[in-house]
Amino acid sequence: MSVRPAGQRHTDTRALVTGGGQGIGLAIAEALAAEGCRRLTIVGRDRGKLDRAAEGLRATGASVATVAADISIVAECERVIAEAIAAMDGVNVLVNAAATTERGSIENTTEEVFNRIYAINVKGPFFLMQGVVRHALEKGTPASILNILSTSAHGGQPFLTTYSSSKGALAVVTRNVAHAYRRNRIRCNAILPGWTDTPGEDAVQRQWHGATDGWLEKAEANQPMGQLGKPDQIALLAAYVLSPDAGIMTGALIDYDQHILGTAG
């Protein structure tokens, strides 16, 4: 049996994680470190959050580089790739967890909002994937890419038209890249979380939906399983999908939710 103990699955991993300062991105970085990854680069806009996240990750024994960057800008994506390769002597795992969940329906989305959502949610991940694919092809080594999408990619709520379509676009890129580079041993998969309890979601609920203290407890009480999704739970799945133990899995779009697509109620 070739499956290694979970604590050793990522001993050869050199991981680049966007959105690594908080939420799902940080949880995935923590899971990779717990499973043996000793070379990590985390990316985000907020230098303070990155530094705090890096401190915790380093406590596991990992070597952690931080890159403050705006991934909506292609030149910044190229800088992120270059700095990650230099810091870790290569990259063989990419996690695209950074995203904006800015609201916008078909009726009220402006060109500015549309461009901003697509730049962060599609363009940034696209060019980061390009950099990792090129690096893997140049080195002739396997790589594993994981895009964090959303169940909204299946359609989404009316106030999430632009966001949902951006995640749908990234779903297509995920499968296209998986198909294009499978013979190069470059795997590309995605996890589509449903409603998830993150610091970003708390900010969204307060900014866009008028939520106040206690909103999370009320929301969770109405869920079939009595909770929203949790980043550390998603991270365990992500660590498996990114690992060699996932074998031939590529092009998979994995729903992580308690509401079942195609059913009512």
Short overview:
With 265 residues, this protein is an alpha/beta fold. The protein has helices spanning 23-34, 47-58, 74-88, 111-139, 161-181, 199-209, 215-221, 231-242, and strands at residues 14-18, 39-44, 63-68, 93-96, 143-148, 186-193, 253-256.
Description:
The chain is of the alpha/beta class and 265 residues long. 45% of the residues lie in helices and 15% in strands. It has a single domain (10-194, 229-255), classed as NAD(P)-binding Rossmann-like Domain (Rossmann fold). The chain has helices at 23-34, 47-58, 74-88, 111-139, 161-181, 199-209, 215-221, 231-242, and strands at residues 14-18, 39-44, 63-68, 93-96, 143-148, 186-193, 253-256. Strands 3-2-1-4-5-6-7 form a seven-stranded parallel sheet, sandwiched between helices. α4 (111-139) links the parallel β4 (93-96) and β5 (143-148).
